[in-house]
Amino acid sequence: MLDEKRTVRMSRFLSMVLRHQPDKIGITLDEGGWADVDELMAACGRAGRRLTRADLDHVVATNDKKRFAFSEDGRRIRASQGHSVEVDLGLVPAEPPGVLYHGTAAATLPLILREGLRPMSRQDVHLSADAETAVRVGSRHGRPVVLEVDAAGLVAAGHVFRVSANGVWLTDGVPPGWLRTLPR
């Protein structure tokens, strides 16, 4: 069983490999972002990151953000969202709650209020269904600021939303007029 420190390190490593740099360890993701579990474990071993199936099961089961998912047969794994490499997660359009939230660092607020939310290096803008999650996300980058997103207004204006397996709401962008800074 992995201790807490190793679990976090392995989760970060898997995020890097399954979202951004599969080629770093010599694996290829299919069009849906899936990697073969046996190939992933072998490639991790070759890269000096020994990983057993029990370790992988533990990381997937205990990740607080449910960043990873197994295929129904358990033979493939992928990141639930957040890819910078081109993948199609097969997520269908979904009706979001009327309001969603985005957590960011205070330092980025002027740019966001001027240009809106953009995917940057990712494929989609990530939004939370609750402000508390957005605070945690924003805290990773500095003093957190939470933006309220008028999701209902965006849908009425023709924007499309999808929701990932772990409950993160995804859209291609949010123009500044649909954002409001929440007081802290």
Describe it for me?
- The longest helix has 17 residues, at 4-20.
- The chain has a three-stranded antiparallel beta sheet. A three-stranded antiparallel beta sheet has the order 4-6-9.
- The chain has six helices and nine strands, in the order H-E-H-H-E-E-E-H-E-H-E-H-E-E-E.
- Strand 2 (68-70) and strand 3 form a beta hairpin.
- The protein is an alpha+beta fold and 184 residues long.
- The protein folds into two domains: 4-79, RNA 2'-phosphotransferase, Tpt1/KptA family, N-terminal domain (Arc Repressor Mutant, subunit A), CATH 1.10.10.970; 99-181, ADP-ribosylation fold, CATH 3.20.170.
- It has helices at residues 4-20, 37-46, 53-62, 109-115, 131-139, 151-156, and strands at 35-36, 68-70, 76-79, 99-105, 125-127, 144-150, 162-163, 169-171, 179-181.
CATH-level-2 architecture of the largest domain: Alpha-Beta Barrel
Category from helices, strands and their pairing: alpha+beta
Q: Strand order, biggest sheet?
A: 1-3-2
Strand content: 15-25%
Shape: globular
Find the CATH topology of the largest domain: ADP-ribosylation fold
For the sheet with most strands, the description reads: 3 strands, antiparallel
Helix coverage percent of residues? Answer: 25-40%
Using only C-alpha atoms, the radius of gyration works out to 17 Å
Written as H for each helix and E for each strand, in order along the chain, the element string is HEHHEEEHEHEHEEE
- Roughly what is the average pLDDT, rounded to an integer? 93
Strands, total number = 9
Overall tally of structural domains: 2
Distance between the termini: 40 Å
